[in-house]
Design a protein that fits this description.
440 residues; alpha/beta; three-stranded mixed β-sheet; 51% helix
């Protein structure tokens, strides 16, 4: 374990610190990444050794919580394991050491490690590291939203500094802070908004390769990463009353349970056989028309016949929507999916949006739905642009980790920020405290 951790640190050590060097990585898909992010470098490694995979899993678990500190975690782990090996080698130089003596030696090693972490917790952090940080840091107790708005960009920029150029850091900082404060409009549920953005990160952020990073922007509303299957002309409605319904089951009636064979001699008989299905679909579309539905959203496939009937009824259709996107849609609209058993469309099954239009993101076209102003969390998306897919992924990963840093900052009683430093002092303190309590 010590030799493996030493190898991992050798890979990451050059990219540690404010003057870090970048590593060039070739992924399994052939993409070339140039980054100094420790988590990205670790993920690109393909280790076959079980202990190596165990160490990488531990590092990734730490990074998933804090969003920072991958290289620091490995450096501390390497020194701890190397210290254990040195103590064991020193105490077991004689070949006549029995198992009982070895057990006592290992217990002594655990006690010494406990004392070492206790020294870090009780002396090094509060008396050495923290005073030096406070010499060049700003300590702020925030009590209202304007103070949080003032200092949040400093926290994000602190984390991103050293990873990208100053221009890119400024752009990403503006995007991250804009998404946070547009999601939490009143500021009372700011921590909940950040947690929600972390949980829905893959749905909130949309990568657009082939454009400069300066083209990145914030889009308010809900973007469904699917295009219209049918874009019908809306009926005469006011601008802020676009109505939609969500269906998670096929509109067509299910097939008969009993297998049967039909012999059709002409087109009239063929049309008669299928008229029952068309009639059932028409009745369901009339239910939607009676409620004034302009847009139909479904996670399943919609056949050509249903698309034709919906277009004739001036109802736009978007299908193949992932269920995760529909679940997010339910959070912003008080709407439920239409029941397949009854197909009774009620007001609870119809949502109202301010608009529904097509939005172009790079080479893709998506559906953009406007959300009415109200209390609670706002619907916001971040469009992340980059010259190539690899840089887009680096930008989005950095912003994901920046959200985790903001979450930890909001959880604490005050903020400590300084250019080119992270939040490892707080996470290291918590780790050391838990380790000392466990061993004692």
């Amino acid at each position: 374990a010590a030799s493996i951790s030493h190898t991992l640190c050798g890979i990451l050590q050059g990219s540690f610190g404010p003057n870090a060097l970048h590593n060039m990585i070739s992924t399994a898909t052939g993409q070339v990444l140039i980054t100094s992010d420790g988590s990205t470098i670790i993920k690109s490694l393909h280790l076959s050794h079980p202990i190596g995979n165990l160490l990488v899993d531990a590092v990734q678990s730490h990074h998933a919580i804090t969003g920072d500190g991958t290289k620091t975690f490995l450096l501390i782990l390497r020194e701890a394991l190397q210290t254990i090996c040195n103590i064991c080698d020193k105490e077991t130089t004689f070949s006549h050491v029995n198992s009982q003596m070895r057990k006592e030696q290992m217990q002594q090693v655990c006690i010494q490690m406990c004392q070492a972490f206790a020294t870090i917790l009780d002396h090094t952090l509060p008396e050495v590291i923290l005073p030096n940080i406070l010499k060049n840091a700003t300590v702020t107790d925030f009590y209202d939203l304007p103070q949080v708005r003032q200092h949040c960009p400093c926290v994000v920029k602190t984390f991103l500094s050293g990873k990208f150029t100053p221009r890119v850091v400024d752009i990403l900082t503006e995007i991250v802070c804009g998404v946070i404060f547009k999601t939490s409009k009143d500021g009372n549920d700011l921590a909940s908004a950040v947690l929600q953005l972390i949980d829905d990160f893959e749905l909130v952020w949309i990568e657009v390769p082939g454009k400069p990073v300066a083209s990145s922007r914030i889009v308010e509303g809900v973007i469904l990463q699917r295009d219209f299957a049918v874009k019908a002309e809306n009926r005469d409605t006011v601008q802020d009353s676009i109505k939609f319904a969500v269906v998670e089951t096929p509109l067509e009636p299910s097939k008969t349970e009993t297998p049967s064979t039909l012999y059709v001699k002409n087109k009239e008989q063929f049309a008669l056989v299928h008229s029952w299905k068309q009639h059932a679909v028409q009745m369901r579309i009339k239910e939607l028309e009676s409620e004034g539905v302009n847009l139909l959203l479904t996670s399943g496939h919609v056949s050509d016949m249903v698309l034709y009937l919906c277009k004739a009824a001036k109802i736009s259709v978007v299908h193949h929507i992932p269920k995760e996107e529909l679940q997010r849609l339910y959070k912003f609209f008080t709407v439920q999916s239409v029941s397949v058993s009854t197909w009774d469309v009620d007001t609870i099954n119809v949502g109202q949006a301010t608009f529904c239009k097509q939005i172009t993101c790079g080479q893709n076209r998506y559906v953009h739905i406007g959300v009415k102003e109200g209390s609670g969390l706002g619907a916001v998306h971040g469009i992340v642009c980059g010259p190539n897919p690899g840089l887009c992924k680096l930008f989005t990963n950095a912003m994901h980790n920046a959200l985790k840093v903001v979450r930890m900052w909001l959880d604490g009683p005050n903020s400590h920020h300084h250019p080119r430093t992270g939040i490892n002092d707080r996470s290291l303190k918590g780790f050391s405290h838990n380790f000392v309590v466990m061993v004692r």
